[in-house]
Amino acid sequence: xxxxxxxxxxxxxRIWTPLAAPPQLLxxxxxxPTRGLLLYGKPGCGKTLLASTLGSMLSPxxxxxxxxxxxxMDKFVGSSEKNLRELFDNPPDIYDKFKQNCTxxxxxxxxxxxxxxxxxxDEFDAVxxxxxxxxxxxxxxxxxxxxxxxVNQLLAKMDGVQPLAVPTLVIGLTNKRSLIEPALxxxxxxxxxxxxxxxxxxxxxxxxxxxxxxxxxxxxRL
Length: 222
Hints:
It comes from Fragilariopsis cylindrus CCMP1102. Pfam families: AAA (PF00004). This is Vesicle-fusing ATPase. Its main location: cytoplasm. The protein is α/β, with parallel strands linked by helices. Helix content is 45%, strand content 12%. Helix 8 (141-159) links the parallel strand 3 (117-122) and strand 4. The longest helix is centred in the last third of the chain and has 19 residues, at 141-159.
């Protein structure tokens, strides 16, 4: 990821360091690992690429889950909430290479339960929109009620009211932070919110260009 060095340092300090610390140390210090990260900014600023890169860095043992917010929403009552629950309740297994390198079934099971699951939600505002919005006719309408129910389900998962199968970090991506339900932005939920700016300096643009042309340099084409 080019041109985002300061952003990466901030994420490492606020997200990666607590996740990498021993659980017992965090417990003694009264620190909870971050459960949610919100990346926001204008289209084309690199949010999706950054989130995917972060997911792979933070979750080396388990595949990350990438989903678009609108894909979760369903026209049938209760289906959207079910789709959301399944994201949290059915994390992918750890990579086969780790299973094959370990002959102890108990160790594999422990690794599977301990490995973090990273969920990347693009167009996050589709599932996390402020509750109580109207339907354009002066009332909330069925669609508004359904959206509120999805937000409530997400809050329950983020708060730990409904226990998670494995440690989970949700990375939400949006172009419109103002649309996000305020309750989701409180501590313990998506408390880490980072704006991803468009590259506005020569150094940032050169950094991005170098990332995209490094294979050409390696092949002797530049």
